[in-house]
Amino acid sequence: GQSSAEADRVVEAARVLDEIMGAPDKAIPTKVIDKAEGIAVFPSTIKGGLGVGAHRGKGVFSVRNRKTNTWSAPAFLTLTGGSVGAQIGAQAVDLVLIVMNTRGAEKLSNNTVKFGGDASVAAGPVGRDVEASTDATFRAEILSYSRTRGLFAGVTLKGSAIRVDRDAHERVYGTAFSTRQIVSEGKGGTPSLVAPWSAALARHFVAP
Predict the structure, then answer these.
(1) What region, left, alpha or beta, does residue 174 occupy, with left being phi > 0 and alpha being psi -120 to 50 degrees?
(2) Rounded CA gap, 49 and 119, in Å?
(3) Between helices 166-173 and 4-21, what is the axis angle to 10°?
(4) How many C-beta atoms surround the C-beta of residue 35 within 10 A?
(5) End-to-end Cα spacing for the chain
(6) For residue 196, how many other CB atoms are within 10 A of its CB?
(7) Over the stretch 26-52, which tens digit does the pLDDT of each residue have?
(8) Residue 171 dihedral angles phi and psi, to the nearest 5°
(9) Dihedral of CA 148/157/141/186: which sign?
C-alpha cells in the first residue's frame, strides 16, 4: 500500500533494536537504557563513498513517558549530512540515538535539529555493565551508536541534522503532524503499522 515504505522502516528499526539489545557483550549499557528519555533508530543509513563521509537515513523516534512508563508512537525523521569518519566505498550503517534527558528529547522534537549546534551529542559507551566512561558522556543530551557489518560502536554525529518527515506522517497518521504533536501530544494515535516498533521498545526499555 501507500505507506509500505514506512511499514518497512518500522519493522527494520525494530529489528535493529532487537539485534543490538540481544548482543550480550557489545550492547548499550544498562545505565544508559535506564536513563533513556527517548530513542531514535535509523536502519541501513547509507554512508557516502570516497571519503565524502556524508550520510542520509530515514528513521523513527519515540519518547518515554515516565509517569506511565510507556513510549510514544514514533515520529518519522530524516538524518542528513555530517561525517562518520573517512569511508572507502558506500556502506550501510544502522544508527541508534539514545536521548539522555528531557532537554534532549525536547530538542529532538523540534522539526529540525543540528547536532553539535542545537543539541550536544557524544559517542555512546558500549558494553552491558560498563561504567559510564566519563561524566561528559552523561552530560551529553544524546548518545549515538553505529553498527556496521555487525560491529557496534559509539559514533559522533557532529554536523548532522535531523528533520521531521512530514510526508511519512501524512501517510501513517493521516495528517502531516510535527514531531512534537506525535511524540508529546499523541495526536496521531497508534495505527497498527507502528506496532512492531512499539513492541520492541516495550521489550527492551520498559521496567517489568
Answers:
(1) left
(2) 27
(3) 100
(4) 16
(5) 36
(6) 18
(7) 678 888 888 899 999 998 765 555 444
(8) -70, -40
(9) negative
Mean pLDDT of the chain: 83
The DSSP symbol for 194 reads G
Q: How far is residue 208's CA from residue 178's CA, in Å, rounded to a whole number?
A: 31
Cell numbers at 126, concatenated: 558500549
How far is it, in rounded angstroms, from Cα 100 to Cα 108? 11
Q: Which three cell numbers stand for residue 105?
A: 528529547
Question: Residues 140, 121: contact at Cβ < 8 Å?
Answer: yes
Least confident of 6-10, 65-69, 193-197: 65-69
**Grid coordinates belonging to 64:** 518515554
E-strand spans in the chain? 38-47, 55-65, 70-71, 75-80, 91-99, 112-114, 121-123, 142-148, 151-154, 161-164
- E strand or H helix that includes residue 205: helix 195-205
pTM (2 decimals)?
0.87
